[in-house]
Specification:
single chain, 76 residues, 2 helices, 26% strand, globular
Length: 76
């Protein structure tokens, strides 16, 4: 998952609370990394909780899947 952290940081997504919940103020999503489960979850960002309780949109199991989603949906 370390590569996921590096990838998200390179795209200007921040983990402000250092709890593997990444947000970017320019996007309505939060990305949660679960190293124990080996999953990357894209959620709606409800604002106050940085996506902790937001609606789950996608779950990825590899960095490549996340990168493909970024290319196809965000254009980065």
């Amino acid at each position: 998952m370390e590569h996921c952290h590096d990838f998200l940081k390179s795209k200007r997504w921040l983990d402000q609370d250092l709890d593997s919940r990444y947000i970017n103020v320019e996007h309505p999503y939060a990305i949660l990394l679960s190293e124990d489960e080996g999953q990357i979850t894209l959620r709606g960002n409800a604002g106050d909780d940085n996506g902790q309780n937001g609606e789950e949109i996608f779950t990825f199991t590899t960095l490549e899947q996340l990168q493909e989603w970024f290319e196809n949906n965000i254009g980065e």
